[in-house]
Amino acid sequence: MIIQAFAFYLFAAALVAAGVMVISARNPVHSVLFLILAFFNAAGLFVLMGAEFIAMILVIVYVGAVAVLFLFVVMMLNINYTELRQGFLQYLPIGGLIGLVLLAELVLIVGSWVVAPEASVKLASPAPPLDRITNTHAIGNVLYTDYIYLFQAAGVVLLIAMIGAIVLTHRGRDGVRRQRISQQVNRTREESVELIKVEPGSGI
User: Would you list the domain boundaries of the chain?
Assistant: First the structure.
């Protein structure tokens, strides 16, 4: 228990410190690297909770794909962050209002746990015995039965975000020949094949 408690406080402290550095670092590349560190520490906390599947998904998906994609986009866009910070005070009231709304939601959630702690037990799905079912099987049962529509909606949102990222990073260049699949499929044999009769002795 002492080792588990020490590991929990170590991962938690590193996670909080990395989260603070994500929003306070001036270099966006450093922010992405601190984000990757935060993902690794969160995965360690999930391992301590016995949710090794979620920890592995967090490392594979978020660290291996999302964080690397963020780093690639940040380094490729070459954004002038000095111009972005110029309009910070202009959006400060809206940002403060959104922050107050999120704070009010967190207070309501924590208050509901304090006032009615039995409500979370009734709303939560019953956990099956660990000796009968694995974590992956349990997550699949809950995800694809109770939250299937929300899961599909999240997939649509990610698809829209991916298309938007491609549109934003796409750069048109002059003089580049692009592939036209319809012309390749519809061309005839006469257009693509040319027979040349080489006389004996006239070759190289």
Answer: 125-169
CB within 8 Å of 169: residues ≥ 6 apart? 73, 76, 77
d(CA 51, CA 67): 21
Q: How far is CA 133 from CA 51, 95, 129, 130, 141, in A?
A: 13, 44, 7, 6, 10
Quickly tell me which residue has 């005839």 as its tokens: 188
- Over residues 6-62, the pLDDT tens digits come to 888 899 999 999 999 988 887 777 888 888 889 899 999 988 888 888 888 888 888
How distant, in Å, are the alpha carbons of 72, 82, 169 from that of 78? 11, 12, 11
Alpha-carbon gap, residue 171 to 9, rounded angstroms: 46
Question: Among positive and negative, which fits the CA dihedral 77, 82, 83, 85?
Answer: positive
What's the pTM value of the predicted model, to 2 decimals?
0.56
Rg, Å, the chain Cα set: 27
For residues 8 and 45, the answer to whether their CB atoms sit within 8 Å is yes
- Give 39: exposed, middle or buried? Use CB within 10 Å, 0-12, 13-18, 19+: buried
- pLDDT reading at 195 higher than 90: no
φ/ψ of 151, rounded to 5, equals -65, -45
